[in-house]
């Protein structure tokens, strides 16, 4: 049961077969949710540059609109911006407002950075039987994860436990671009890189891991 807290059960991959749950190649993918954020995005970008890592940022539309220069910097640094809804509210895929949350976020991202997002991640990982229908309607691919680090709890020991126990050579790792993880985000990135090297795992880019 403890494993399920960090790694989604394989049955989910069968039920939601059009959703990406793990890297398509034997390389690790870094993903960051909830930004861009004035307090953390810059720190993350510098840390990624230090390790020559390209990541995917699942951005909240309102944050993109609020921080256009940071959003552009994500793209300029060679990373990918994806859809994380307009306001990061809990979404119910049976609610009429779901399409607004998704469509509006894509529109803002395209207006600000000049690129329409290809990928989506629901806030809090709320996936449902209609998720993939909405993805098709909005020309998006749903991307979940295969390793949840709980970095938002702001406890580096929890991140270390998750990485030590469950890091695989094709993990899609969730980290957060938010104040909740600010104190440990740099150390968390460093630690994942260190453990990857120790295990002989490669770190990939969105273009190859999500193809």
Write up this protein.
The structure is a single chain. With 211 residues, the chain is an alpha/beta fold. 43% of the residues lie in helices and 13% in strands. The protein contains ten helices and eight strands. The protein has helices at residues 2-6, 10-15, 41-50, 61-66, 68-76, 97-113, 131-137, 156-166, 185-199, 206-209, and strands at residues 27-33, 56-59, 80-83, 119-120, 141-142, 147-148, 172-176, 202-203. Strands 1, 2, 3, 6, 7 and 8 form a six-stranded parallel beta sheet that branches. The chain has a two-stranded parallel ribbon with strand order 4-5. Helix 3 packs parallel to helix 9 and helix 8 (156-166) runs parallel beside helix 9. The protein is globular, with a radius of gyration of 16 Å. The mean pLDDT is 95.
Entry summary:
This protein has 211 residues and is α/β, with parallel strands linked by helices.
């Amino acid at each position: 049961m403890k494993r399920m807290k960090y790694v989604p059960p394989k049955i989910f991959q069968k039920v939601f077969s059009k959703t990406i749950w793990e890297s398509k190649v034997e390389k690790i993918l870094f993903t960051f949710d909830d930004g861009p954020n004035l307090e953390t995005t810059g720190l993350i970008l510098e840390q990624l540059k230090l390790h020559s890592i390209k990541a995917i940022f699942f951005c909240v539309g309102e944050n993109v609109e609020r921080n256009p220069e940071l959003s552009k910097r994500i793209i300029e640094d060679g990373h990918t911006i994806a859809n994380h809804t307009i306001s990061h509210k809990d979404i119910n895929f049976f609610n009429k407002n779901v399409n607004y949350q998704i469509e509006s976020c894509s529109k803002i991202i395209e207006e600000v950075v000049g690129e329409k997002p290809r990928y989506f991640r629901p806030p809090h990982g709320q996936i449902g039987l209609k998720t993939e229908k909405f993805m098709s309607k909005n020309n998006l691919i749903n991307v979940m994860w295969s390793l949840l680090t709980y970095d938002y709890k702001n406890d580096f020991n929890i991140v270390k436990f998750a990485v030590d126990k469950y890091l695989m050579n094709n993990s899609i790792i969730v980290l957060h671009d938010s104040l909740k993880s600010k104190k440990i985000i740099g150390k968390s990135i460093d630690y994942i890189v260190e453990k990857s090297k120790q295990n002989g795992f490669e770190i990939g880019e969105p273009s190859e891991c999500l193809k």
